[in-house]
Structure formats: structure tokens, C-alpha cells
Amino acid sequence: MVRVIAIVNQKGGVGKTATAVNLAAALAAAEQRVLLVDCDPQGNASSGFGLRKGGPQPSLYPFLLGRNTLEQVVRTVVSPWLEVIPSSPDLSGAEIELVTVSARESWLRKRLKGVIDDYDFVLLDCPPSLGLLTVNGLVAADAVLVPMQCEFYAMEGMSQLLHTLDVVRRGLNPGLQLEGILLTLFDAAVPGQVQIAQEVRHHLGVKVFATVIPRQSAVNEAPSFGKPVLWYDLQSAGAQAYLRLAQEILIKGSGAP
To answer: Is the pTM of this model over 0.70?
Structure first.
């Protein structure tokens, strides 16, 4: 059965899109059929796979509004296990167009329902905000993965996000689960990061993935080549960390201890 995971954090610069791109590639490397949906008008997940934003191209925008089918907007990338629905700047207009529409929070779920059964995983890269596009991602998802940087204000932002998840559960998506919190951009040499990571694990326990994503040059360099870090430098610490994360998610999904 397909699992739909929204990758969400209302704060930018925490490795959210890097996680969406590299987790998609890592799951595909494990021969899982993956669809990555770029729900962010900035389109960084799209360019992370070499799908540049210049000129007319199929994108999430017409699919979300019911003007195109999945087959018309999905793009293939290098891996036979991985497909992408790219974003475009036009997607920012969808929030305005949907404001007056009935059940506007559920449009993405309705559009994906029934057309994603050929996949094992659908990953939704949501914008760095808690606006209508992100809410659509949360309503469409089975679970939420939250990238979290080890910094002073991280816990405060996390509390706000967990509250939002509770609100969505109560009113829009009762089955929404927390897939896990992923510590990102970690550097043990930076003062305080080890302590913050320990505090996060103390307060949130098993909700935090065992895998930690390091702050690493290969992860930062790979998008400029239009590649996930696994395709750019498989032996790098960042690539190996995302492979471990994919394995954690697969084990959790299998129900294995």
C-alpha cells in the first residue's frame, strides 16, 4: 500500500527540501517506487533533480486545479524507480484561487487519490510556511516527517508545528501520524549542537529518528548539478546518512522491531 509522507517545517533553511530530494533518491535506490511532489512554488526540489524552472513545462499547478492528469505533469528522472511532479512559480497563485473553493484544504488529496496506487511512497515537499499549500499536504498525507536543525529556537518552532498537526488531525485528517523528527545540518563542532540534540531526544524520545543528517559539503553542492547527493557522491557522509534514513523508514513501515 502506498505511503504518503509530507515533509514539513514552517522554518526555512533546515534541510527540508534536501531531505525530500535525497530521501526520494534513497528510497528509489532500495527499489521502492517513489513519486516526489514539489508543493513549494520556489521549485527547489524540482531543480534538485535537474528539472529547471525556466519556460513552460508540466507542473503541479494545473494538476492541483484539475486541468491536467497525473500522466501529463509527471516527469521521469534518471532512476527507473523515481518520478517527480515539478513545481513552478505559478503555484503561488493556487492559494489565491483556492480561497473561495469548497473544501480547499483537500484538493491535493482528492487529486492524488486513485492515481498513486502504482507507487510505494509519495513524498510531498511542502513550502516553509503553514499556509494553504502546506495544509493541503498535511491533509493528503498519511504521515509527517519534520526536519529539524539543532539550534536554540528549534524546540519552540517544533511546539508550534506539533500543535498544527493536532489541529489538522481534529478537523481534517484524523489518521495523520508523525513519521518522525529528523535532526539535520548537525555539526558536533558547533557549540551547543550536541546538547540541543540530546535535549530534543529527551523531550521527544522515539519520535526522533536515530539517523542524523550531518552538515556536509556534498549535500550542499549536489543541487547545483541537478542531482541528489547519492548520485553526486555516493560515498559521502550525507549520502550514507540518507540511505540509513530510508532504511529506518522501510523498517518502521514493515512493522519490524
So the answer is: yes
